[in-house]
Amino acid sequence: MHISRAHLRDIEKGRKAANPARAAQFAKILNYPEQQSLKIAVQDLLQEAKLNYKVGLKAAS
Q: From what superkingdom does this record's organism come (predicted)?
């Protein structure tokens, strides 16, 4: 995965949100549940846009 240290630090500190594709990559590398990582990423994007919604994800069948 190609990501600058500054960008990773911004994600870690909450200054930037990871997009869903990047969140899925992080989950795979860190052996973290992909669905949870995606849920957090989408929730962060909504909060960043000042949209007051709660995210729930369900795998497509």
A: Bacteria
